[in-house]
Amino acid sequence: MNRTGSGAYDALADLRAAGHPIDLLDERQRDVFASLNQTEVTLLNSIKRRLDDVAPEVEGQELKLV
C-alpha cells in the first residue's frame, strides 16, 4: 500500500506498480483513478492479474474486421 507524503492512500502509485497504464490516461481520467480507495484498487489489480494470466490465449484470437 502506497501513501503520499501526507499519509493519504496513493491509488495511482499502487495501480502503476501493478502495471496499469495510468500515465496514458488524460488528467480527468487519472483523477477518477486517483480517487479510488484501497479496496477498489485491490479489486482492479486482482482483475488485471486474472486477465494477464489468460492474455496469451486471448491475444492469439484477434478479431480483424475488413
What would you note in describing this structure?
By secondary structure, the chain is an all-alpha fold. It has 3 helices and no strands. The protein has helices at residues 11-17, 27-34, 38-59. The radius of gyration is 15 Å and the shape is globular. The mean pLDDT is 86. InterPro entries: Aroma_sacti_dom. This is MarR family transcriptional regulator.
Low-confidence stretches: none
N→C terminal distance: 45 Å
Shape: globular
Count of individual domains: 1
Mean pLDDT: 86
Question: Counting H and I runs of at least 4 residues, what is the number of helices?
Answer: 3
Number of strands: 0
Structural class: mainly alpha
Q: What characterizes the major β-sheet?
A: none
Over all CA atoms, what is the radius of gyration?
15 Å
Helix content: 55-70%
Order of helices and strands: HHH
Beta-strand percent range: under 5%
InterPro entries: Aroma_sacti_dom
Protein name: MarR family transcriptional regulator
